[in-house]
Structures are given as structure tokens and as C-alpha cells.
Amino acid sequence: MLASVVPIPGIGLLRIPLLIAFWEWYRRAEFTCDRAALLCVQDLEPSLRALAKLAGSVKGYEDELNLDSAMQQHAARGEVNKLVLVVSILENASNTHPFVPVRLKTLKEFAASPEYDRILSGDYKRDVLGLHEGGGRVKCGCGTLVNAKLAFCPQCGRPLGQPAGPSACVQCATPLPPETKFCPKCGAKQAAAEAPQQGALDKFKNTASSFFK
């Protein structure tokens, strides 16, 4: 987007290191997925075999998979000519998934690490507020999206379901959410809520859109 707006020659090249860093993060995320799968199965052998089959298999011979031979391919990469190795790294720089033998070796090392034993024993960081888990979210009166399993907002301490603004109809005193415009009981119009302030990004988008019209 910057390259299309700013007329500076060569500024588009800035995206190359950003893309390389993004692809590297993408590949590293696959290692995290492999570890999560092992923690669910809690058995290294089927985890390795399932992962190794991603590299390819011959129909009818799926059970004749040699894990040791598959992982030895990782060590064989270091024995090739350095130029060939550099070319291989550059060609795989944009891949979204790491080389399967590398994933096998990394997963096996994780299974033998103290960290794996510590997690299985129950000693790991817990997301008590449910900030990183799925599930329903409830919008607190302060505007924070809170996990529905919590009874109080971790930001303001307000009980969930209790609005921050006017909590009742201006005419019949029926409890209402802050965004209510008309009371569903008596039909009275409620006081208009203050419009949220426009953020800097929104201002930039509006300015840019008006500029290119």
C-alpha cells in the first residue's frame, strides 16, 4: 500500500524482507502445531508416523514407513555442497510448511525435553481469563470483550451484564443495555449515546479515500 502511494523508486523492495520474516513465522507456527498434536495424543510413535506420511506415501505400502530413514534426510542436507544448500534454502524461503524431516526431528527432541514432561505433569501457564481460547464473548459496559465464562470484567471489575451507562428507561425505569434507542416496554426514546471518537487510522482512511476520488 505504501509503495502505491509514495512515488519513491525501489520502495516496493521493502516488502521482500517483511515477506521472508512472515514466511519464517508461518513455518515456525507449524512446529507449534506439531507440539500441540503430541500433547493431545501423548504418544510419540503415532505422532511421528502421521507427520511422516505428509511427506508422501505409496498406496498399499503406507505401513512400510521407516521413521529413522525419514529423519536421516535432515542430516543428509548438511552433507551436500554448500552452494546447493544455499539454493535449497532460498527456494524454500517462501514455503508455508517446513521440511518434513526437520519437523520429525524437532518433534522428537521436544518429546525428550524436560518441558514436555513438565507440561504433562500439569505445570504450565494457564489462561484463567480465557483471553486466548475460543468460545462466546460478552461485551462489558466498559467496552471490553470478556469470555462468557467469567462473572466479572477483568478490566473494570463490573459484573457482566451490568451496563456502564444509563441502566434504566428514562420513562418506566425498565433495565436496558446502553445501546438501546427505544424502550421495548413503553416505547420511550432513550438518550442518544455519545458517538465514539474517530481513531487516527479511520481519519487516515477517510483522508486517503477522499484524496483518490
How many separate structural domains?
2
Overall pLDDT score:
75
Main sheet strand line-up:
1-2
Largest sheet composition: 2 strands, antiparallel
Shape: flat
The helix/strand series, from N terminus to C terminus, equals HHHHHHHEEH
Provide the structure class: mainly alpha
Task: Give the C-alpha Rg.
Answer: 28 Å
Per DSSP, the total helix count is 8
What fraction strand?
under 5%
Total count of strands: 2
Low-confidence stretches: 193-197
Helix content: 40-55%
Give the termini separation: 16 Å
Structure description:
With 213 residues, this protein is mainly alpha-helical. The protein contains eight helices and two strands. It has helices at residues 2-5, 15-41, 44-52, 67-77, 82-91, 100-111, 114-120, 200-212; strands at residues 137-139, 145-147. A two-stranded antiparallel ribbon has the order 1-2. α2 crosses α6 (100-111) and α4 crosses α6 (100-111). It is flat and about 80 Å long. 7% of the residues are buried.
